């Protein structure tokens, strides 16, 4: 396989196209779509979002130190794109995209009702890195749509094919499930 | 949409199932598959991997302060799973999975030749968070397979459908491209 050297760029894909909601009162409620997000620790559960300093949501989250990571589904692709491109200084994105802010269980930030999984987070540290500040946060509650719960045992039953990822400039639907984690060592036995 | 409150857990999906290579000499070359990874900054390009303290790769990366993030493709699903489950203390994973270590361009860590995109990284900080340590790193070079390069202009042309994501215990192939980033505001004009 012949390889070409390329200049360093952010090229880790696929990643989430998470719709991150913020604001502690309806006047400042906002949504920013973020691909620079993920889990950083399991116990306690911690995640991050990296945001440019000049984004409207940056100042809101810096002040309130709370945000919610809402899953993007293929049905939300237009809203996710719009919320990533336009500024909350110019638009009420909830209204513009017909999304419903609903009270968080623990945080004062609204969840996006139309998103099936809403991860409520409290910021523990803001780390300046250059173009972006990384907001490290602890997950304090998760709201999951009934459709994503296995009614037989109450566990999360992900509807993978409804989800989408961000991959190098494209929103890509998840496709076939290839394998279950751990399969390679089960087959070895 | 009725929502159920769930205890806080790491539930941000889909994420990469990155095969992270490490080691500065063939005796310590190793691979660990990591879902807790992503981009944290654009300028300069920075990423992270979070690794449990007791993992073999943790001590190697802590010592050498270099690693390579190698894309997992659907063809590499078995290798990715094995490298995430088994320890380099017990297996030479390159040999066991028939993978080829090839010299990094900038780092002394080997890239995985069979992976189409190899992101060479140098650690800038190790942050203790609890169960995991987060290795923050700067991207110093990227190697990209010719198949992933648009020959007309030399830019990266991602073969999204060859890639896979990790989503709540499953390896999931990427599916249909839904839209190009920015489409929502183009349609508005």
Task: Briefly summarize what is shown.
The first copy, chain A, has 189 residues and is mainly beta. The first copy, chain A, has four helices and 13 strands. Chain A has helices spanning 56-64, 77-85, 93-96, 183-188; strands spanning 3-6, 15-16, 18-22, 30-34, 37-41, 46-52, 66-70, 101-103, 110-112, 117-128, 132-145, 164-167, 170-180.
Q: Can you tag this structure with a few keywords?
A:
homodimer; 189 residues; mainly beta; Pnp Oxidase, Chain A; 7-stranded antiparallel beta sheet; 3-stranded antiparallel beta sheet; 4 helices; 13 strands
Can you walk through the features of this model?
Chain A has a single domain (15-188), classed as Electron Transport, Fmn-binding Protein, Chain A (Pnp Oxidase, Chain A). Chain A starts with a strand and ends with a helix. Helices cover 15% and strands 42% of the residues of chain A. Chain A is mainly beta. In chain A, the strands form three sheets. Chain A has a seven-stranded antiparallel β-sheet with strand order 4-3-7-10-11-6-5. In chain A, strands 2-12-13 form a three-stranded antiparallel β-sheet, with no helix packed on it. Chain A has a two-stranded antiparallel sheet with strand order 8-9. Chain A contains four helices and 13 strands. At the A-B interface, strand 1, strand 2, strand 5, strand 6 and helix 2 of A face strand 1, strand 2, strand 5, strand 6 and helix 2 of B. Strand 13 of chain A pairs antiparallel with strand 13 of chain B, so a sheet runs across the interface.
